[in-house]
Design brief:
The protein is built from nine helices and no strands. The protein is mainly alpha-helical.
């Protein structure tokens, strides 16, 4: 609910302090702030390779350790699975939820900073968000919330998204086709839970009644 409030607040701050006259973006960042890996980018044909990729590998490892080897991570997993049982066990469910949202916001902001410092070198003023956060939800769902799963699903969706650009320009394939493929993948992954729920309901209704 606060997405557009944050979006337009950032636009206001850009217009106030970092506006590039005559454009719909901020001024370019200084070269000293860039996180590009110049020598690796040259070896890969000018691809925009930056340190954000390396940092996020460590972030995924830290996420896995935190979620599976710490008390706070255990509380987040427990509340996510069953908030009512967690409350009965003595956990402060609202505090745990706020903690989880703050951690996810921190990681989302970190990814956004990589986009600015490593890819575009400026912040664009758009009427809508870039959608990276919603892609993150899809990656987490597809990866089952595990560190390894998120790494693999993020690689898959990243390759599909990057490939869509080349297919659009080189083969004339609409970008929407790739978006549909990603949507179908997420749908069929999530459908297993729906099928289990339906089978459970049918099995429950077919149980013989006593008396």
């Amino acid at each position: 609910m606060l997405n557009f409030i944050a979006l337009y607040l950032s636009h206001y701050l850009i217009r106030l302090f970092m506006d590039q006259p005559g454009t719909q973006r901020s001024t370019l960042i200084k070269d000293s702030a860039s996180i590009n890996i110049g020598w690796l980018s040259e070896r890969m044909g000018g691809a925009r390779v930056h340190w954000g990729f390396i940092i996020m590998l460590f972030a995924v490892l830290a996420y896995h350790i935190y979620l599976n080897r710490s008390k706070s991570g255990y509380e987040i997993r427990a509340v996510g699975l069953n908030p009512f049982a967690s409350k009965y066990a003595g956990m402060k469910v609202p505090a745990v939820m706020i903690r989880a949202m703050m951690i996810s916001g921190l990681i989302g902001g970190l990814i956004g900073s990589f986009e600015v410092l490593g890819v575009f070198k400026y912040i664009a003023i758009n009427s809508t968000t870039s959608g990276i956060g919603f892609d993150g939800i899809a990656v987490s769902l597809l990866g089952g919330g595990t560190g390894l799963g998120i790494l693999l699903s993020g690689t898959l969706i990243g390759l599909l998204t990057y490939g869509a650009q080349g297919m659009s320009f080189g083969a004339g394939v609409p970008r929407e086709i790739i978006n549909m493929v990603i949507a179908f993948i997420i749908f069929f992954v999530a459908a297993s839970g729906i099928v289990r729920s339906i089978l459970y309901l049918f099995g429950k209704n077919k149980q013989p009644k006593e008396g």
